[in-house]
Design brief:
About 90% of the residues lie in helices and about 0% in strands. The chain has about 120 residues and is mainly α. It folds into two domains: about 80 residues; about 40 residues. The chain is extended, with a radius of gyration of 27 Å. The N and C termini lie far apart (about 85 Å). It comes from Marinobacter similis. This is Protein translocase subunit SecE. One of its GO terms (molecular function) is protein transmembrane transporter activity. It is found in: Membrane.
């Protein structure tokens, strides 16, 4: 009995996903068709269609799992210990200096190889 309920849910989910893709297609085609209209109206229509498509997608099994994932990710982000401003500045300076040193090394090697090739060729 349980497999029939899962099958009917997944079959109905397929219809919901079809509706989502049709809404997206309507948005794309409508945006092209009404290209002479004001950009504001087209953006508002696309935002409205996107909201409706998202709401329909959230009614599917995958959509519910995605919403749960977002909620769990939000909880995990609150647990993150963010660096202080001095730590951030120090780390940024270290990265910038390292990138500059590597860039100078690569430039030097490129110049050396160019001179060797030019001397060999010419």
């Amino acid at each position: 009995m349980e497999s029939k309920a899962v099958q009917s849910t997944s079959r109905f989910d397929a219809v919901k996903w079809l509706v989502v893709f049709v809404l997206i297609a309507i948005g794309v085609v409508g945006n092209q068709y009404f290209s002479a209209e004001s950009l504001l109206y087209r953006v508002l229509a696309l935002v409205g269609l996107s909201i409706v498509a998202a709401l329909v997608a959230l009614q599917t099994d995958r959509g519910r799992r995605f919403a749960t994932l977002l909620k769990e990710a939000r909880v995990e982000i609150r647990k993150v210990v963010w660096p202080t401003r001095p730590e951030l500045v120090q780390t940024t300076v270290i990265v910038v200096v390292f990138v500059l040193v590597v860039a100078l090394l690569l430039w030097g090697m490129d110049s050396l190889i160019s001179m060797l090739v030019a001397g060999f060729i010419g």
